[in-house]
Amino acid sequence: MKDVRFTNRATVSVAACLAATVLLSAGAASAQKGLCEDVDLDKAKAGDLAATVAAAEAAYKLRKDEAKLREAIAKWKEATEIAPKKPEAYLALARATYFLGDGILRLAGKDKEMIQTLEESVYWTERALRVQNPDYQFSVCAQEPFMEKTIKTIRKQDIPYVYWYATTLGKWGLAKSIIKVLDNREKIYGIMMKVRQMDPEYWYGAADRYLGGYFTKIPFPKGDLKKSQAHFEASLKRSPNYLTTHVLIAEMLATKLRDRDMFKKHVDFVLAAKEDIIPGLEAEAAIEKQKAKRLLDDIDALVPGK
Question: What percentage of the chain's residues is helix, strand, coil (to nearest 5)?
Answer without folding.
Answer: 70, 0, 30
